[in-house]
Design goal:
The structure holds two protein chains of two kinds. Chain A is an all-alpha fold. Chain A has helices spanning about 1-20, 25-50, 60-80, 85-90, 95-100, 105-110, 115-130, 140-165, 165-170, 170-185, 195-200, 205-220, 225-250. By secondary structure, chain B is an all-alpha fold. The longest helix of chain B has about 35 residues, at about 225-260. Classes of the chains: A mainly alpha, B mainly alpha.
Chain lengths: ~260, ~260
């Protein structure tokens, strides 16, 4: 376990150095992603200027859920960017090079890439947390734990969606869109989701664990909500491992000759 | 003769789009998810009597029209960016086919498939989720010419974005910003009537409002003269953008000729 954590840390550090080596591209992607996130919020500002609230959900809540969504997605892109191309890696037989390494395959694949745009998301999250008014110095540990839990569930969901490629082959576009659905729900006023849709958002499309519970923690939900969010980590983390392992047994080699240093 | 060649390119592209089912199904599902999410929002607002007597159906059909225009527009900037970055464009300069015209024809083929498939699905789902047509259903007939011209306009903007790769290595950050400006100034999620006067004035001076809001506002009803005015604006913006794209392409090609591809 300790070795795996050390390996993961080393992979992240290497990827960070690699993405920062192209300094121009790194800053372009970071700054543009930062601006991009704020432009999108203008639409919700317009909406809440017109209607003020939706079942008690107001603009500061919208800022908080956007902060969580940006923080979760940004962190995932920085530390586990490889998950977004996992389906392609599987279909093209590129897992071969990972299978030859004496390290956990899934960990090696997801940590094999780091997206510079993730830093723009993380920077947006910091500014949005400051603007929403919910975060205090005392609540910062809760907020960080909530973000970590949302991030792990997001990566686990991405692993599950992308692992469909083991069975259905060319599913990259479909897997990518599944993650877009997840984000579409995850950055929406959660008070409008009731009944069966709410159930779906805590099961099939786990937006509930990615942002809804974390944002409740940010809004002062306390330990119980945080524990529920961490429960999602256990469930979706285990499910992702099971699905990936089951898929790996069906994996057909791409007969690739290659070495990863 | 060249029209026949364009038609052949468009037909080939349309066939390729139909064969790439993952992308098509993914976009369709994403469209469905958005409509479902927003149907909840507008139904909640209607239940609480906060829409000022306007039917929730009008608002959902507004989104169905705006998203139809946006999602049906092909991501043509990606192929142009790739051609410029890899230097493939330089090879095409020697061919007796205008690169720009060929890309436009291919884009039209892709657009035609998406326009029909997403239109049928999106309008069907909007009806299903909200249970009825908008107050003035006949106004939707104007969506056919308006939507087609709007999609061509947005496609031309995508071509201009792709051509940015002549000067900046990655066009993706420019795409993110233009896409979000399109969402905001176009009124993708909420009609421009919600906007404060100053933002509405800025929005209406952009091609995005002509394309996205121009089509979406048909859900609130229209008159023949208003619909014809919208169409006229779309023609004007299409001509202006065609000129702009030609100038940008000409300058880019000169850069290739001087520096090499």
């Amino acid at each position: 376990m300790k070795a795996a954590v050390q390996y993961f840390g080393a992979m992240i550090a290497t990827n960070l150095r690699a993405s920062m080596a192209l300094r121009g591209a790194f800053w372009t992607r970071t700054i543009f992603m930062f601006i991009n996130n704020f432009i999108y919020l203008v639409m919700w500002w317009v909406f809440f200027d017109e209607f003020s609230e939706v079942r008690g959900w107001m603009l500061p809540d919208m800022l908080a859920i956007y902060a969580v969504a940006a923080g979760v997605f940004g962190t995932a892109m920085i530390v586990a960017g490889g998950v977004m191309t996992l389906a392609r890696t599987i279909v093209q037989g590129d897992l071969d090079t990972f299978l030859t390494q004496p390290k956990p395959v899934l960990l090696a694949v997801v940590a094999s890439r780091s997206e510079a745009s993730g830093w723009g998301d993380v920077a947006s999250a910091v500014v949005l947390f400051a603007l929403c008014g919910y975060v205090t110095p005392a609540s910062i540990p809760f907020v960080l734990l909530a973000l970590a839990s949302g991030c792990i569930v997001f990566v686990a969901s991405a692993v599950i969606f992308h692992s469909l490629a083991f069975w259905l082959k060319d599913t990259e576009a479909l897997s990518r869109h599944f993650l877009h659905f997840l984000l579409a729900y995850a950055a929406f006023p959660k008070t409008v989701f009731l009944g069966w849709l709410k159930v779906a958002l805590f099961t099939v499309i786990p937006a509930g664990f990615v942002t809804f519970l974390p944002v409740d923690v940010v809004r002062g939900g306390g330990w119980k909500v945080l524990l529920a969010a961490l429960g999602g980590v256990v469930i979706y983390g285990s499910l992702a491992l099971l699905v990936f392992r089951a898929g790996l047994r069906r994996y057909e080699s791409g007969n690739r000759f290659g070495v990863r240093a | 003769m060249s029209w026949r060649r364009d038609a052949a390119l468009a037909a080939t592209s349309a066939r390729q789009t139909m064969s790439a089912r993952g992308e098509l199904v993914g976009r369709a599902l994403f469209f469905g998810v958005l409509l479902l999410v927003f149907s909840r929002l507008w139904l909640v607002m209607a239940e609480e009597g906060r829409l000022g007597g306007v039917a929730a159906a009008n608002f959902l059909w507004y989104l169905a029209l705006t998203e139809w225009v946006v999602l049906a527009t092909p991501m043509i900037y990606l192929t142009i960016e790739e051609d410029v970055k890899r230097g493939d464009l330089a090879y095409s300069l020697a061919r007796p086919v205008s690169y720009l015209r060929a890309k436009f024809a291919e884009g039209l083929g892709e657009l035609a498939v998406r326009c029909v498939s997403l239109g049928v699905l999106g309008f069907g789902l909007a009806w299903l989720f909200i249970g009825r047509l908008p107050d003035q259903p006949l106004a939707l007939l104007w969506a056919l010419p308006t939507g087609a011209l709007a999609m061509v306009l947005l496609m031309q903007i995508q071509i201009a974005i792709g051509l940015c790769a002549f000067w900046i290595h990655e066009a993706a950050p420019v795409y993110w910003i233009v896409q979000k400006l399109n969402f905001v100034f176009g009124g993708l999620l909420f009609p421009l009537t919600f906007y404060p006067d100053w933002l509405r004035a800025i929005s209406e001076a952009t091609p995005f409002a002509a394309a996205v809001y121009g089509c979406g506002k048909l859900s609130f009803g229209t008159t023949t003269s208003a619909a014809l005015t919208t169409l006229l604006w779309l023609v004007v913006w299409n001509v202006v953008n065609a000129g702009f794209v030609s100038v940008v392409y000409g300058r880019g090609v000169r850069a290739v000729e001087v520096h090499g591809g």
